Amino acid sequence: xxLIHVDSAARRLRFGGMEMDCEIGRGGVCPAAxxxxxxxxxxxxxxxxxxVLLRPGxxxxxxxxxxxxxxxxxxxxxxxxxxxxxxxxxxxxxPFSAESLWRKDDAYDVIVVLGQNDAPPVPEAGSAIFFHLxxxxxxxxxxxxxxxxMVRLLPLLQPGDGMEIx
Length: 166
What we know:
Layout: E1 3-7, E2 12-15, E3 18-21, E4 29-31, E5 42-54, E6 68-70, E7 75-78, E8 89-91, E9 98-100, E10 110-114, E11 130-133, E12 143-145, H1 147-153, E13 162-165
Parallel strand pairs: 1-13, 4-5, 5-6, 11-12
Antiparallel strand pairs: 1-2, 2-3, 5-10, 5-13, 7-8, 7-9, 10-11
């Protein structure tokens, strides 16, 4: 197992011999036990890389070794702790709150799903903590990097790898 190392104070990400700038949540970082839905904090800890969601026509999946699938319009991620599918992929529309994965910006052209609060999900303990493309501002709690850096890094990631946020 290899780890992507995130130095949240320096806003730097390291993997193998690569190092790059990264962005964290608008609320800074917090211990995973203190993470709450909507707080904008990036949870500290080690999180497995669960898989990759890719937007068709935006990124070439050639060489991606992690499990991956295409996203499509209507794909979402539940962020409503009352939803039985909390912190899981869902189809939109639905009667509970959910974030659309089909965005107008490019941030979700590549989504690496981090295994934070998913085994099983605890209501209100945070959802949709992703590793995605930088959108020009702090994230809602995710880790983000520039497209060119993600494209270089993505084919190097293997099943069993994780991300350590410190």
